[in-house]
Design brief:
The chain has about 950 residues and is an alpha+beta fold. It is about 50% helix and about 20% strand. The chain is built from 24 helices and 30 strands. Strands 1, 2, 3, 4, 5, 6, 7, 8 and 9 form a nine-stranded antiparallel beta sheet that branches. Helix 16 packs parallel to helix 17 (about 775-785). The two termini are about 100 Å apart.
């Protein structure tokens, strides 16, 4: 049959770009980009030109100001030098008559028009001077005996003759003026600070030079002044663009002069007192803004030590600045600042930019119009081709298209017509082929149905056979294993009978395992294996697995170590049976393939989270490590396949090769993963990571340890306070200690523990560390501060085994630290030491034998160990109890040096320490301490 795409299917295809846009938009964009790029380059080049022009302008203005200042400021020192020479040469100095010196100064004033004032002050208060007032008039001053040493000021005519008395200043003393004192102290020519004239409200700067007689005696100071206003007049004469400004400031920020009409000082109300003006306080916005920017940029003006060309924004306009230090070597240290607004040069450039934008718009409109015309001419015949193609797609294969005008489109139309003809021929052949395929598929379907019926019948027969076989074998095994377990607990059986019963139990368990493996692999192949989750006590579950596997390890005379790395959940929801099956299978393989060394089983939490129902999830890792035969890389690729085994022929005969395949499938069904690492001859490590859901149900902890036959103790201290927020933790200790004769008091948190301690007066307190209301650390600290309980025995018990928690508990005042889950033997040993009691056993000899059996890690060798005396083992025993491996190694090496007979004993200790076998080390020390 013919398969044609429907119009709905075509409509659902991704949206395409119209051809008109493809033709018009690139053309328009090219025009727009070309014109826009031209305008942008023009604007950028214009700004570059502006920057170059402003740079040249600022540099030229600064150079002119420097030249003018050097010339202008050199004159006062020249005048001073001439005056000092004239005073010495012509004897102008006479304290009683300063008229000659005054006339000489007036003559000098006429020779140097840039000087505003020339004066001399002597040590006897004598004074003579001549200079210009702000209004341009000339005055002369004199202080000598003729004026009774009163400062007298008169005006003079063009010849220098007095014409009118002006005023007197009785308080004027040149010896206390800054210019006089500074020159006297310096002993050389120098500039003085800018100051206010004594006789008029204006600012000036003076150059002073000390005067000495021929004998080197100090006579006075010659001073030549300049009005700052003349520097300002020069700056105003400079042309800096349309609105550019220049100003000179001291390093303190005070204005010296500027190119504006603003005076660099502020007059008081009586115009007799002036105050210097800071640049940042100027009323000229450009000067004020420039000064503020320089402070923001450099911190203060003293940091500017070289020419700086800068730019900044002021009121939205860009300003170009050049700062140049000016120093003359005689004490002047000014800054010359030139500011040029960018706007002075950008008017024409902005006009060109506007013209460019207008041209862009016109070119865009023209390009768009031409593009639309060209696109219509090209797309019209293409639309006819598109219409014909849609007709073909709808099943109308008798389509033919004629295109005139554009040669390329004509060729496209001819190719389209040929394609339509080929499609008509192809669909006809396809319909014929489809009929033949339908007939073949129908025949093959009938054959597959018959094969499926046969396979289902075979699977059903296999399942029925396995079910019958399982039933027939489990029925007698139920009796065999049941009675075997009963007889194992019968104390009247002889050792020989116990061995026979144990063999019956092991053989029956092995047979049951084989049956279960075969049924499980059958369910896996049929995809019928299901998991049945239920809540169970997780620590109790793990202890059951450990006890079963430890027996097998002891029978092979290898070590078995079980380690809980951190706090485990009390109860979880999972398929307990399947999880036990996985762990026993992996641990059993580790024991089976290990002939020497041992097996380490570690369990710990490696993550927390929530499932889809927001129930808390805990990711737990089961770590199983052995020192067995190991596996090669090619063997690792096959160990999880059914009926695959590794090892020698004897080890292969012990199983079916299904265990790991089943274990992997169960772990995957539980949402976890199983990984393996192995080295031939060194051993293997299996990792099982599972996410288990917490259970809120209370599951009682059941201990299967019945090997210790304690009945009581001898001693007077028997009152114990248990502080723990978990009822099951307290209940475990109560059930353990109360039958032995201890009086027990409980508390749920640290605060309640303090209250119960005051009431109960315990001999020993066992406390958890992490509890609500008040934790164990705080309770311990408060007890140690109390005079009544500062010596009470405190035992910290925590699920955390990190060293910092152990250290923190000791710092809080605890005597001992026990890691959870608490080992009964370790707890009893701590109670014996701290309460100074003696245990009473029902069968002491049997108990001692059981202890030796439980700590089979001693691996007794033919070499007889020489045990050092107890006095030499105290530090070693204490270090073993707290797990301080470093101290253990130090003590073992010390024993080697004391006596060569202790060498085997010390080497055994170092072997435990190097392998971090803390529990085995402690058991070894307990067995030999005190012998």
């Amino acid at each position: 049959m013919t398969v044609i795409a429907s119009e709905n299917e075509l409509a659902k295809s991704p949206q395409k770009i119209p051809l008109r846009l493809v033709l018009v938009v690139p053309f328009v964009l090219q025009i727009f980009l070309a014109v826009g790029l031209t305008g942008w380059l023009s604007l950028r080049n214009g700004k570059t030109a502006v920057n170059n022009v402003t740079t040249q302008l600022r540099t030229e203005v600064v150079a002119r100001i420097n030249q003018q200042l050097n010339t202008y400021l050199e004159t006062p020192h020249l005048v001073n030098a001439i005056s000092v020479d004239a005073i010495g040469r012509f004897g102008l100095w006479n304290p009683d008559n300063m008229g000659y010196m005054r006339s000489y100064f007036y003559w000098q004033l006429q020779q140097f028009p840039t000087v505003s004032y020339i004066s001399f002050g002597g040590e006897r208060k004598e004074y003579a001077g001549a200079g210009y007032k702000d209004d341009g008039s000339v005055v002369i001053e004199i202080t000598d005996r003729s004026t009774n040493f009163l400062n007298t000021i008169v005006t003079v005519d063009r010849e220098g003759n007095p014409t009118q008395f002006k005023e007197t200043h009785p308080d004027y003393d040149p010896r206390i003026r800054p210019w006089y004192k500074a020159a006297k102290v310096a002993g050389k020519p120098q500039w003085n600070k800018i100051y206010q004239y004594f006789i008029q409200p204006s600012l000036g700067i003076s150059a002073s030079q000390p005067v000495y007689d021929r004998n080197g005696a100090f006579r006075g100071v010659v001073s030549t002044d300049l009005f700052l206003s003349k520097i300002g007049d020069f700056l105003q004469s400079l042309k800096i663009g349309k609105s550019g400004k220049t100003f000179i400031i001291e390093r303190s920020g005070l204005l010296v002069a500027s190119s504006t009409a603003e005076k660099p000082f502020i007059n008081s109300k009586n115009r007799q007192k002036t105050q210097r003006l800071k640049a940042i306080e100027s009323s000229i916005p450009l000067i004020k803004g420039t000064a503020q920017h320089l402070i923001e940029r450099f911190g203060n003006f003293t940091e500017i030590d070289s020419n700086q060309q800068l730019d900044f924004m002021l009121d939205g306009q860009q300003e170009f600045v050049q700062v140049s230090p000016f120093q003359d070597g005689r004490g002047l240290d000014w800054l010359i600042v030139v500011v040029v607004p960018e706007a002075d040069f950008m008017e024409e450039i902005n006009a060109n930019t506007r013209s460019t934008i207008l041209l862009c718009i016109l070119a865009l409109l023209l390009a768009t119009f031409l593009g639309i015309l060209a696109s219509r001419w090209i797309t019209h015949p293409i639309f006819r081709l598109s219409k014909a193609s849609r007709a073909i797609a709808s099943g109308q294969l008798d389509q033919k298209v004629e295109v005139n005008g554009i040669d390329e489109l004509g060729i496209l139309a001819q190719s389209f017509n040929q394609m339509a003809q080929q499609l008509r021929e192809s669909f006809a052949a396809l319909e014929k082929t489809n009929l033949e395929l339908e007939n073949r598929v129908e025949e093959r379907t009938i054959e597959l149905k018959e094969a499926k019926v046969a396979a289902d019948t075979a699977n059903q027969a296999k399942s029925q056979f396995l079910a019958n076989m399982s039933h027939e074998l489990r029925t007698p095994l139920n009796g065999i294993l049941g009675y075997a377990q009963i007889m194992e607990r019968d104390k009247t059986t002889t050792p020989k009978q116990k061995d026979a019963i144990q063999i019956i139990h092991q053989c029956g368990s092995h047979l049951l395992t084989l049956i279960n493996d075969i049924l499980d692999i059958s369910k896996i192949e049929a995809s019928k294996m299901d998991l049945y989750s239920s809540a169970f006590n997780f620590p109790s579950f793990l202890m059951g697995v450990v006890e079963m596997c430890r027996i097998r390890a002891e029978q092979k005379e290898i070590t078995f170590s079980y380690q809980v790395l951190n706090q485990l959940p009390n109860a979880v929801n999972a398929d307990e049976k399947r999880l036990r099956q996985v762990l026993i299978n992996l641990l059993g393989n580790a024991i089976k393939f290990t002939e020497k060394g041992g097996v380490i089983f570690k369990v710990g939490v490696i993550g927390e989270g929530e499932d889809s129902d927001q129930s808390p999830l805990t990711k737990i890792r089961f770590h199983i490590q052995d020192t067995g035969v190991g596996m090669a890389p090619e063997q690792l690729e096959k160990i999880f396949l059914p009926f695959e085994q590794v090892g020698n022929s004897e080890q292969k005969s012990e199983g079916t090769g299904l265990g790991l395949a089943i274990a992997q499938k169960i772990v995957q069904m539980m949402g976890g993963e199983i990984k393996v690492e192995s080295i031939v001859g060194q051993g293997s490590i299996f990792y099982v990571d599972l996410e288990l859901t917490h259970s809120s149900e209370y599951i009682e902890y059941s201990s299967r340890d019945a090997s210790i036959n304690l009945t009581g103790f001898k001693g007077n201290k028997n009152k114990i306070l248990l502080v723990d927020d978990r009822f099951e933790n307290r209940g475990f200790l109560i059930n353990l200690l109360e039958p032995l004769g201890f009086q027990i008091m409980e508390a749920c948190d640290g605060k309640e523990g303090l209250d119960k301690a005051a009431e109960f007066k315990p001999d020993l307190i066992i406390t958890d560390l992490v509890m609500p209301v008040m934790d164990g650390f705080e309770m311990s600290r408060r007890l140690r501060k109390s005079p009544e309980f500062k010596d009470v025995i405190l035992i910290a018990s925590s699920a955390s085994v990190f060293n910092f928690d152990r250290q923190n508990s000791h710092e809080a005042g605890c005597n001992e630290f026990l890691a959870k889950p608490i080992q009964v033997e370790e707890l009893l040993e701590v109670l014996k030491i701290y309460l100074q009691i003696e245990w009473i056993y029902d069968q002491p000899a049997d108990w001692a034998n059981q202890q030796v059996g439980f700590t089979n890690i001693l691996n007794t060798q033919s070499v007889e160990l020489v045990i050092p005396p107890s006095t030499e083992l105290v530090a070693l025993f204490n270090a073993a109890r707290i797990g301080d491996i470093e101290v253990v190694e130090q003590e073992a090496n010390r024993l080697k040096q004391i006596d060569g007979n202790y060498l085997p004993f010390a080497n055994k200790i170092l072997q435990f320490a190097n392998n971090f076998e803390e529990k085995e080390l402690l058991a070894f020390m307990k067995a030999h301490f005190g012998k």
